[in-house]
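Final report, closing paragraph on structural work. Over the funding period we assembled a curated collection of sequence-structure pairs, and we close with a single example.
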Amino acid sequence: MKWVVGMIALLVIVAGCTQAVQKDAAMMEKEDAASEQKEAMVKDESALSPEELMEQEKKEASEWTPEEVAAMEKEHEATMSGAYQDWDKAKFDKAVSEGKIVLLDFAANWCPACQAEHPQLIAGFENLNDPRFVGFRVHYKDDQTTTEHTALAQQYQIPYQHTKVVIKNGKVVLKSPEAWTAERLVSELGALV
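Its predicted structure, as stored:
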């Protein structure tokens, strides 16, 4: 009788283990399928050139009306100060040739740290109120990044968004991956005069 009870117990254990293994296998298959799907999406996106990515993102953003786009652009322009502005190669080249201290702020519009830092940088330049300083916001891996922005990020070996590069006399004198406050901007740039 003990033998029969032992065999039944063994069969119950084996059956339970078999079900658990089957559930684990099914779960692993689902996870593998999801992982493969994500990899395929990333591979598809990484196969696109920056121009193709931007075109794809423009299509996704095409649900905005022209009025909404104009309002967003106007709002963005209103937040930029004279000393801190969107990237412009001609203005950058002129500032460097004039011997100005130039801050390049590599920022992504999807990045919460960049969004929080943006008004701080504007305030910092306003506090400096000195024509010897100029800052440029350079889009980094966001929907407004151009090939020129990407080349600039490669030139200065930018690892990720909210990295700042300071240039004096045409040479990099500071590279900072941290988010800055207005006070830190004034301190860092002011120390270079």
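Residues 40-46 have pLDDT under 50 and may be disordered. The CA atoms of residues 29 and 165 lie 46 Å apart. We thank the funder for supporting this effort.
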